[in-house]
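OP here, attaching both records as promised.
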Amino acid sequence: MSAEPTERWARPVLYALVGLTLLRVAALALSPTDLFVDEAQYWLWSQTLAWGYFSKPPLIAFVIRLTTSLVQTDSTMAIRLAGPFAHLATALILGRLAYRIADRRAALWAALTYLTLPSCSLGSFVLSTDTVMAPFYALALLGLVEMGMTRRLGPALWGGLALGLALLAKYAALYLPGSALVALLVKKQARSPLRLWLIFFSTALIILSPNILWNLSHDLTTVRHTAGNVGWVQHLTFAPSLTAGLKFLAGQGLMVGPILVCGLGASLWRGALHGARSLLIALALIPLGLVTLQALIAGANLNWAFAAWLPGLVLAVIALQNGPWLKINLVLNGAVSLAFIGLTLFPYTALPNQQPLLMRLLGRADLSEQILDMAEAKGHIPIVTGNRDILADLVYTSRTRPVPLYAQQRQGRPLTHYELAFALPTGLIGPVIFVSPIVPDCPGGPAPLAQPLNTDIGAYANQRLFAVFTRAECLPQL
């Protein structure tokens, strides 16, 4: 494509990016979906800002506090509002990155391709730490490339700042410095002066330091939880599963589309191992390889490799931009993006004889309202449950309804934030509502009354749950 046609397409591409983002924001405002369990927990954290939390670093709580303060409401839309804008920012930054290592055409394709990824469609409607991390991780990537090309102080400073913020969003951002160091040891072309690297990493460390200090003063709470997710690192148990590894790699095609997976392979096949591209190859393949190994040994969630696709997408776009594949990919992923907007507006859409496609975002608030109504009818007696999902939504839904909420006692170390923040008081006696799939025995007293909860549609469909009117002395431990 000549320079003139590329110039002509730049403005329509920008309009398309902004237009898709605004459509997603409008869908958020109109959507009747409930918060997912993680979103409800992040909202709870945002009510008491700190430099760290039980399972995640703090930036997502700060972001939610910012958006809810701007909109002056704790609605689901306000909690999720940062998502579409974070992905728009990431798309523009990746476009700039593609421009720096290729050309304007690659920049336009990178921005369009990113914003229509299936993972971005989901991340624009369900706020996650990946979404909050993405623009800062992409900016850190750009800082590394600019630092190598210009050998100036500026990119080392703002690139390190971006990396520090990415780490405050999610520890998966550690893939960037780890992979970059490997690339530097292997490829001389990717090297910058040592002083710039020291400035880059020192700046990131300074930004992350409040969270490090918080962890040190809180028994390494977040670090322990993150290590526990890896599983085999904590327990040193190895159970390789080739099937799990293959499923994980196939699942990456669902996250970004199979064409981009092939495009990343094409960039390797064509030997894009020079200069800045060699650095991006390391930043894409090392995280992808590590998470695939984790999937083989102990299982892995598909989004754990999300950081690999920020550099990986740029490489794939550069490899595929001269053929028809990016256009085909844009049509397919664009259709998915529009379909997801439709699903968000009409979340009860379902296949014949099936639950709604967005069932995990439905039925949570309704269940909470049922339980809260019962507690209020009994004189605002406490509610106790060992189900993290139920307690998370109860906390959010009851923000204007003063009902005591407690997590069921567990033997040993707490496994969730709620078991710490809403621990059942020692020696609590008297009537409570116990939400559970079982009806506990209460020896020496009247049998508890159990009322089945309506879970016909949504996240708790096909689950038997009871609101048990019993006494705190009868509650079992987990």
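Record two, same layout:
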Amino acid sequence: MTLISLILLLLAAVPFGYLYLQAIASARSAPETKARPQPTNRFIIALPAHDEAAVIGATVRQLRALDYPADLFSVHVVADHCSDGTAAAAWEAGAVVHERNSGPRTGKGAALSWLFRRALADDGPPAYDGVIIFDADTRVDAPFLRVMDARLALGEQVIQGQHVISNPDAGWFPALTWAMFLVDNRFQNYGRSILGWSAKHMGDSICFRADLLRRIGWGEGLTEDYQLRQRLLLEGVRIAYEPKAIGRGEAALTWAQARAQRARWLRGTHDASRQFARQLLREGAKRRDAALLDGALQARLPSFSTLTVLTMLFLFFQIIINLLAGEVFAWGAVTAWGVMAAALFVYPLLGLALEKAPLKAYAVMLSGPLFVVWRTWLAARSRFGRREVVWVRTTHGGGE
């Protein structure tokens, strides 16, 4: 094994070990959250909506029917630069509607910041204890608010619920997204929580203490949710994960829709990583805070998709180099790269096994290598490309 091969293997072992540490931790069981007989926390449910007339009425009606005292929560919809009947449909379903027509339409981050400045004003005592954000198409399990009430009562400041894909039968891409979310929730959120780190901010089905949002605000940008997670870490706030609080949202139906989503997210996370990674690493080392160090590692280490593509490329080139050099029996590096590649192939299947997923999830995950290559290509374009990336609405419920 050459020195270069050894160095590359050691470099790849860092993100590989980081991923598998979370996976192994997620095999442990955590105490289940028990709802309180008499909930006391008051919630505002915020729904940012741009031209969502096709789904917003059903979403509001379903939220208003949640298993929680009606006088302890209200549903607020931001009709953000809408050209259809979103505002009217939300109002008829029983929501408090805020129509936003001034300023540029730059995505849900701007809409939520605008709403919170209105609904969480600093004058007088707070009207709400918690703020919950859903997407316009999210369908929520009945106990959601009771579970969040219990977590707030335990002293948590931010709680990420389990975001599940609601339309896995709508095509190959939604089915693959559904399977990947099962793995992502298990490893990236549950595993992090077991380790005492901060779960991901998924932008949907998430609860904040109202006074925390009043103090630090929401933020704007291509990926304001990712940036907010970094800011929370620097504030000493970890995002807890609650798998019993379930919200179900639609996945993109086509590659074209998904490409727009992923390009925005990848560019936004890259920009935020450049902004926060060094500070997270410096503060993590200074405070000896594993959650901050995790935030820095997530910002700098390659993703699962990128690591998998690089591992396969290094394996291929190592085989070619050995053959050209006539080193028929010097296969130590090839074996090491092969073991790592096999373990990365098993990685998502392990997540499905821990989630006790149905056979359909395993079947669709076998097509995952196509997604891995596609996502890595998008990540490279987002990192090195110069084309401007802007927020683009994803169609929900068959609307235009």
